[in-house]
Write a structure and sequence with these properties.
single chain, 215 residues, alpha/beta, Rossmann fold, five-stranded parallel β-sheet, three-stranded antiparallel β-sheet, globular
Length: 215
């Protein structure tokens, strides 16, 4: 029986990897972590499955006066996902949306260069892609990641997370080929509530994990 909260992201990743190992994946499948917090989880998943690990840089667009609340997200290649109902409900202006998106796009480009360390862009055509994060609250960042990856013509996109809100998991089941989530809760709160150790993952940790052999 699953015991919550998880000790840390590494434990969550090992448990998620074991769950995914119950299925079989093509030899050319790849695990993509959403930086920063999703990469420690994805690293353990990749280790368990014996698959290569990479990242897909996605940035949450936070409400200007409540940055933890996502009004959307951006991903590599100019992909933009907006929660229009939340934007209307909060009375967020188009100017505010554009300002936040421009700022986060700059940060996404910085991280893309930092994490990739000269490696070429992702080659995902006709491959099974497993997208991993440490959890889904609104699901905005994962929605942007799915949209970005689907534009690269994979054979399948699988979303895999340790924990998610019911609303986010149900939505992702419709946009991805499969959504694997070990625990779905409502009400949900924040992802950090489901971990005893939810300290911030650093850029250096992400780079170290991406250098570690997984297959």
């Amino acid at each position: 029986m699953l015991q919550l909260p998880f000790r840390d992201r590494a434990e969550a990743g090992r448990l998620l990897g074991a769950r995914l190992a119950e299925s079989s994946f093509p030899k050319d499948a790849i695990v993509l972590g959403l930086p920063r917090g999703g990469v420690p989880v994805a690293s353990e998943v990749a280790q368990t499955l014996g698959l290569p690990l990479d990242v897909i840089v996605v940035r949450k667009l936070g409400v200007p006066w409540q940055p933890e609340l996502a009004m959307g997200a951006i991903a590599s290649g100019g992909v933009l996902v907006l929660d229009q109902s939340l934007i209307r409900m909060e009375g967020i202006s188009q100017e505010d949306v554009e300002a936040v998106a421009a700022r986060e796009e700059q940060e996404a480009e910085r991280r893309e260069q930092l994490y990739r360390e000269g490696r070429p862009a992702l080659e995902l055509q006709n491959r099974t892609v497993i997208l991993v994060d440490d959890g889904l609250a609104t699901g905005s960042t994962m929605r942007a990641a799915v949209k970005c990856v689907k534009g690269l013509h994979p054979s399948a996109v699988i979303v895999a997370v340790p924990v998610a809100s019911r609303q986010a998991s149900e939505y992702l089941r419709h946009v991805a080929d499969e959504c694997v989530c070990m625990a779905v809760h409502e009400p949900f709160g924040s992802v950090g509530e489901w971990y005893r150790d939810f300290r911030q993952t650093s850029d250096a940790e992400v780079r170290d994990l991406l250098r570690r052999p997984t297959c």
